[in-house]
Amino acid sequence: MIRVFDVVISLGGLIFGSPVLFLLWVLGWLDTKSPLFRQERVGRHQKPFTLAKFRTMRLDTAHVASHLADASAVTPLGRFLRRTKLDELPQLWNVLKGEMSLVGPRPCLFNQTELIEERAARGVFAARPGITGLAQIHGIDMSTPRLLAETDAQMLKGLGLAAYFTYIIKTVTGAGRGDRIRGA
């Protein structure tokens, strides 16, 4: 049933949000000349997929987890996109394609071996990664791999429709602060 809501909400978001997506794409083009950021991430069953987001950092920024990136790499538009979580909107395409869910554990990078091991030990990779979830609304990011994996596993155990919509509503209304960036 959650997959049905993922498809309906992501499709609706892409269709009705297309003017906002287009505006953010144009602003991103003016900001960095490369408005979309694509990166290979760890998906369900540890299979790779390409995650799409609006670019928030300069093009020459190293591909590392956000908590390892330098705050000076974030562009002025990027600060706004991260603060408002609008940088996540292109992931609606990943949700529509079935690579992600609206709610699930945030997809990590393949070089985050400690987090991958912690999640694998707790069965977290049985679920689709998500745009938001329990860890995100509580401000837990990838800088604490064990706590994140424990929180992801806890969320997945109790993930029904009520929790699914609660996480989405809390995210849209501003719960959590997004991924931390060193020095920000």
Describe this protein's structure:
The chain is mainly alpha-helical and 184 residues long. It has 8 helices and 4 strands, in the order H-H-E-E-H-H-E-H-E-H-H-H. The strands form 2 sheets. Strands 1-2 form a two-stranded antiparallel ribbon. Strand 1 and strand 2 form a beta hairpin. It is globular, with a radius of gyration of 15 Å.
What's the short story on this structure?
Helix content is 46%, strand content 11%.
Distance between the termini: 39 Å
Q: How many individual β-strands? A: 4
Assembly form of the protein: single chain
The 3D shape can be described as globular
Radius of gyration based on Cα positions: 15 Å
Number of H/I helices: 8
Q: Roughly how much helix do the residues carry, as a percent range?
A: 40-55%
Largest sheet: 2 strands, antiparallel
Q: Could you report the average pLDDT, rounded to the nearest whole number?
A: 91
Structural class: mainly alpha
How are the elements arranged and paired?
Blueprint: H1 2-16, H2 18-32, E1 36-42, E2 48-54, H3 76-84, H4 91-97, E3 101-103, H5 113-121, E4 130-132, H6 134-137, H7 145-157, H8 161-172
Parallel strand pairs: 3-4
Antiparallel strand pairs: 1-2
